[in-house]
Design a protein that fits this description.
mainly alpha; Serine Threonine Protein Phosphatase 5, Tetratricopeptide repeat; 7 helices
Length: 121
């Protein structure tokens, strides 16, 4: 009887883990891979990732950890520092684990005039 209960408990645990999704990543890993593999596609990846974030927010779902920061970095690479700062702030506010790093990123971007103008040289 103990074996049967253990087997059922394990089956429920495994099936529960398989069907329970915590976050909707929206193909984040594929988008990122495609962008790094072909840098000319990075803008497409950024646009799709931003659309996914907007969809999640409109549905009242929580954006997965790191996605705001990734979008911020993609906007920074594209020379849009104000938008990068806004996404870094969202990551900071949404995920406590990111606060230390995001605070440093925000502080550095806020005081560095070259990066404010989009000149990342």
């Amino acid at each position: 009887m103990k074996k049967l209960i253990t087997t059922i408990a394990i089956a429920l645990l495994v099936s529960g883990c398989a069907t329970n999704r915590i976050h909707s990543w929206g193909g984040y890993d594929d988008l990122l891979y495609a962008g790094y593999k072909s840098p000319s596609q990075m803008e497409v990846s950024r646009t799709k990732l931003e659309a996914h974030v907007l969809t999640l927010r409109a549905a009242g779902e929580r954006v997965p950890p790191g996605i705001y920061a990734e979008l911020g970095t993609l906007f920074l690479q594209a020379g849009n520092t104000p938008k990068a700062l806004s996404y870094y702030q969202l990551e900071h506010d949404t995920w406590p684990e990111s606060r230390f790093f995001m605070s440093a990123m925000i502080a550095n971007l806020s005081k560095n005039p070259k990066e404010k103008s989009g000149d990342l040289k």
